[in-house]
Design a protein that fits this description.
The chain is mainly β. It is built from one helix and 28 strands. The protein starts with about 35 loop residues before the first strand and ends with a strand. About 45% of the residues are buried.
Length: about 375
């Protein structure tokens, strides 16, 4: 399961690429990661298992916050919606020496906030990605399926946070750990989290793994999953989208894109992907008794090593799969950015820092008339 090749249902235009294809109008306005919630006609079954095409959105890859690089095992986020409900699922391959255990806890037990193996999600209807003070719907799910959900008010500049755990908005969860893979599914009524319209909202999602001391997230951010840098913009869409990247740690940059136009009209889109040498820089505004104030992470790119782009046109109901492949030659730190656009609207963006260690290829050849073997790397 280490070969992270998935699919994508939409186009990919890169806010970092210039001169390949025209960028969507909103691509240059944000460096936010972007997720889509495709509309579906059949609700997913909440059984702790994700069937093929059960969710309209499927996005591979999470970041290990502690190493500031991609998680080296498989990780996938699934999304979908209908008029009444949003559906979120996440699937995580665990390290061979790691495991997660169900907890015999009641709903909203304080330990489930941040001191257990949990899927962690926060939803913000405000869509103000620049705000350091905001409110939203915060919830966690542990391996046994138990929930902590609350309305969370947080002020990062003022250093305050409060939870109203008496508000229960998660309607149903299912969790399953099998063959070293942890799967979580969540069903949430849209009206309970103020998502009754189809306007964009902000979403943070990741895993806290206490037993193996890891924090995994879709975004690169410090501290906790409610940090203002932890949020992606989420949009509702009629197009299903699945995006995969390849086995990045082994040097295989392999974007695979499946696009399914479920709208009533023809659509035009663009797919691009870009990889560049990169490094992560930490900035801190101040220190207060060794506590970092205003801590942020920023990824700086250097030389571009890979670029791919493809335009497409799809009739109503038509589906297409597009893919490309590039082998990285040198071990180093990189950033891969993939975005998707349809009809000049950016529907997906993911910036994924990663460490690559391509296999070392060695050729052995006997040396004539000598008992030697010559090795060439």
């Amino acid at each position: 399961m280490h070969n992270q090749t998935a699919c994508c249902l939409i186009s990919v235009a890169l806010a970092m690429i210039t001169g390949v294809f025209a960028q969507p109008a909103d691509a240059a306005e944000t460096d936010l990661n972007i997720l889509s919630f495709p509309c579906i006609s059949t609700a997913p079954v909440m059984d702790g298992k994700v069937a093929a095409n059960e969710y309209g959105g499927q996005f591979s890859g999470m970041i290990n916050i502690d190493t500031q690089s991609s998680y080296i095992y498989d990780s996938t986020l699934f999304t979908a919606c209908d008029d009444e409900t949003i559906y979120i699922a996440a699937q995580l391959e665990l390290p061979e020496d790691g495991s997660v255990q169900p907890l015999a806890l009641e709903r909203d037990t304080s330990r489930l906030q941040n001191n257990a193996d949990t899927l962690v999600v926060m939803l913000r209807p405000d869509d103000d990605a620049e705000a350091h003070r905001f409110s939203g719907y915060y919830f966690t799910v542990e391996p046994g399926g138990q929930i902590f959900d609350s309305v969370r008010d947080i002020d990062w500049d003022g250093g305050s946070v409060s939870n109203a755990a008496e508000t229960d908005f998660v309607a149903e969860t299912a969790s399953n750990v099998e063959d070293g893979v942890w799967t979580v599914e969540v069903r949430i009524p849209r009206k309970k989290v103020d998502l009754v319209n189809n306007k964009p909202f902000l979403m943070s999602v990741g895993f806290k793994l206490v037993g193996i001391s890891k924090r995994l997230s879709r975004n690169l951010h410090p501290i906790w999953f409610d940090h203002y840098n932890a949020f992606s913009r989420a949009t509702f869409t009629d197009a299903s989208i699945k995006v995969g990247t390849g086995n990045l740690v082994a040097g295989a940059v392999s974007p695979v894109v499946e696009i399914w136009n479920q709208a009533k009209d023809e659509v035009n889109g663009t797919i691009t992907a870009l990889a560049a040498s990169a490094r992560t820089v930490e900035t801190v505004e101040d220190f207060d008794f060794n506590v970092k104030i205003g801590q942020e992470f920023h990824t700086e790119t250097e030389g571009r090593i890979y670029q791919w782009g493809q335009a497409f046109q799809l009739a109503a109901g038509e589906k297409i799969t597009l893919q490309d492949h590039h082998e990285i030659q040198n071990p180093d730190s990189y950033l891969l950015v993939v975005t998707a656009s349809v009809d000049d609207k950016l529907l997906y963006r993911q910036a994924l820092p990663f460490q690559s260690y391509p296999p070392l290829m060695i050729e052995y050849a006997p040396v004539p008339s000598r008992e030697d073997i010559k090795a060439t790397a």
